[in-house]
Write a structure and sequence with these properties.
The protein is about 85% helix and about 0% strand. The chain has about 50 residues and is mainly alpha-helical. The longest helix has 21 residues.
Amino acid sequence: MNYCLNGLFFDFINFYFFIRKNLNNLKFNRIFEDLKQLSFILNSILQLF
């Protein structure tokens, strides 16, 4: 369980830096909407535990 959460956390960090690196190529609004949706999904998953 702990290992699983750590993996999820590092995946999220990698995802964040990927976005930062490619920010110039993407529309910021779109990223913000995706992040809100992603955090909502993560919250829903974490509430199951």
